[in-house]
Each structure stands twice: as C-alpha cells, then as structure tokens.
C-alpha cells in the first residue's frame, strides 16, 4: 500500500500565535552535557574527549502547546462539564477511533466562515458516499496552503453546529480538517455574534463536544492527494500525554495499491 503523509511539521522557524521554541544540543555539546550530568548526579568522572570525534548524542528541547502542528483534540479540550459525564483526556481515548476508514469531503470552494449541513450533503454526493459509523471524516478546505503564515489563522472555513451534528449523527467520532480549527476563524465568529448576540455561532464545532463525545484532528495537510481516492485508511494515533486536552499526531493515509 501507499502511505500518504497528512501531517504538518512542528517548525519553530514559521509564524505561530503561540511561538515554538526549539533548542538543540549538538552531539559534541551532548557529550559535555552527559559528562557534567554524570559527575553532578552520580559522582562519576568521564572525559568526553575519549568519544569518537568527541561526540555523543544530540538533544532537542521544545517549548510548545499541544495544539501546535497536526494534533488530536480530546473531549476535555472542549470544556470541563459535559452531558455524558467527565470528559476524557487524550491518553484515555480508545485507539480504535484513530485507525479507521477515511472519507475526504471537499469544501475548498467555500469562503471564509462556516459551511452548513446542506453543503456537507453536497460533498457526500461529490465523494460518492456518505460517512459510515466510525469513519474518520477529513475536511479539505485548502487552508493548508497558508500554513506557516498569519493568514493560516484567519482565512479558513469551519463547520457550523448543524454540520457538526450531521456527522456525529452518522456515527462519526473523529473529524479532521486541514485548517487551523474545525470552527470558523475567531474574528469571523465574533463579527457574527455581534450581529444578533446569538451564542450558537461561537465555537459550535468545539462546543458540540460538550454534548457528544468526539475528537477533532486539526492542522492536517495534503488532503488534496486523497480527493479521487475512494477507499483508504486513516492512522492518526495521538501522543499519549497524561491528563492533556490534546496530543500531537503523525497522521497518514494508507491507500491500497491497485
């Protein structure tokens, strides 16, 4: 089978609303670090100069949020109070949710804002089928072309409440997007709310997770490669971070060879 990478990298060199910090100890610096640590913690003296080329191992240290790069949101991210009991953290989610048949819905022609249930039904027809229970549904919005720029966080399309419920009604438990969020951009939602003070336009996709347990995959990439692929499997296991509301994932599609 072919393996198609659906992930965006964690990259400290590109623009993020919460900047990533990435520091690297070179293999030579790693050797000195190890020698100092052994002396301070275990009372052992070791001269790193005896190592080949004076090098041991490199060491990367990162400071970032769990929502940087491609990641899976857990129910506990959506709020502390739900209609179905205590919301589960990412380390508590069943792994069989994240290795399932996939379906890409193309909504890349939609303007900044939200798409509704009728637009998703049109996407079902275009894809040739509707989601089946436990399918991983992936929204191709085209926003991934803006990744690494400020517009990636302001110019994209999300789901409204009825569209989210349509997918959940069909038994979907994981919904993904190549955009920054499954909801509309922050600025768009605030403007819509200010028109008539309707709270239903504020984070409807995320807040649906307070009523019904499901996960989101945000900041996917390369979904256009799957638009003409009728059958594939999504593998998107989240990193097991104890008591966290999200976990990074290396999402891929497994496509059978003809």
UniProtKB/TrEMBL annotation:
Pfam family, one: Cyclase
Single GO MF annotation: arylformamidase activity
Lineage: superkingdom: Bacteria
InterPro entries: KFase/CYL, KFase_sf
Single GO biological process annotation from the record: L-tryptophan catabolic process to kynurenine
PANTHER family according to UniProt: CYCLASE-LIKE PROTEIN 2
Name of the molecule in the record: Cyclase
Organism: Actinoplanes awajinensis subsp. mycoplanecinus
Organism lineage: Bacteria, Bacillati, Actinomycetota, Actinomycetes, Micromonosporales
